[in-house]
Fold this protein.
Amino acid sequence: AKMAAAASELVTGWCLFGLALLAILIFCWVYVRKYQSRRESEVISTITAIFALAVALISSALLPVDIFLVSYMKNQNGTFKDWADANVSRQIEDTVLYGYYTLYSIILFCVFLWIPFVYFYYEEKEEDDDNTCSQVKTALKYTLGFITICAVLLLIGAFVPLDIPNKKNSTEWEKVKLLFEEFGSSHGLTALSFSISSLTVIGMLAAITYTAYGMSALPLNLIKGTTSAAYERLENTEDIEEVEQHLLRIKSKCRDGRPLSSRDRRTVRQLEERLRILRRRERHLESIEKSWWMKFCEAIRPLKIVWGVFFIIVALLFTVSLFLSNLDKALHSAGFDSGFIILGTNLTNPLNMLLPVLQTVFPLDYILITTIVMYFIFTSMAGIRNMGIWFFWIRLYKIRRGKTRPQALLFLCMILLLIVLHTSYMIYSLAPQYVMYGSQKYLVQVRCNTYFKILPPSLSNIYLLFAFLADQCIVTRTYLFLHKFWFFSAAYYFGNWAFIAVFLIGLIISCCKGKKSVIEGEVDEDDSDMSDDELSVYYH
């Protein structure tokens, strides 16, 4: 009966997983179709963007699933469940580990092969639209550089030992043999971990740039809302009349046959360009004012305010917890050479206090950790959408509804893939004990069989060593990928401080800025008049 109940729960779990996967694919399709350009959309780039975005969202769900599985195998009294014997536990651990292998390998494939190839293919297609074979060859040539970087990272991770042997008499052959033995014993885990950690550092930079700003901009934009389309249209009409009158005054100078001065001709060109943009704004505002989408957004305005308040509370909870966690590391960690690893929690943070309380009511703790992870992803999307895609001080692409180029969507998905990799470490920084052990408890024998004590795993707990020896606690597979190399942990530590600083700066800027225009970013000087047709298709 117990085995049947466990099988029933397993089937239910797989059904829920299938429904979640279907929901993710539908969301990715709607999101990509919402932002991609109607004139420049391509089948391959659309499929690539949807697949990469789906992989990013599925990968972000790994951490809550991993924590849930290690916690689900134990009872509240610290004993293992009847079905969770050593073999079953090992099978579950291996299944989760293979899940990480699969998704992280897919991420490497997307970042170093698929996305670069599709990107360079369409870059060449714009220059040479006739010769497909030449486009493929050129794209493969540029993609080869990314493949080389991936191979180098895998080789470094596979063959650079973490523990250098102290034997002075060991020969070169013995050292080489040791490298291959370590690679074989880890089953490639170290190689994959090094490659993923290298990408995670890039993801950390992307999170500092986009996610930190998105965490402040998204909630405040929801609270403040946008200006009225009717009011903006009235102001725009007044600007059009003013520019037209200015043009008439300048052109009236040449009614008697005299040519305009070079200064007046330059002014006329500038005014005509401004008039073209204002008329395009007029068409956009008129289209939005009549659209059903605008009326729907006005109807749910109170709900947006509620969501904005909720998001800002989550953002402040996240930032305060991250600050206290980093401050604890700065004061009590083993230092830079250890990657600022800390044994125990000396300064508790709100998230660390909240999770143990929520563990008593299933599944509130998993809902909270999933909410934080998904909030991290959606604020990253908001940050990229508001800022666009930059390379240092050069703006490469803009993310706009119905007018985003295929290359920009590919960049967006690659950035999200990298940010997702950094998410796990961010959550670990906030609640290391919970990320490692979930809600597990274990039994400790006290006073020679007199009674047993039920304790939660803790890095500062002196009984933890015995729990490991007795195989009473199961570490999440996430932790295996996080702390293979100390220098990456040190980089993440300093990155957390930068993240907090950028969030505070973004919060101040977002508070000082007024309401966004209802057509924010929709009308730019470099847009063609043909793009108005795309907006009409999007809203109608």
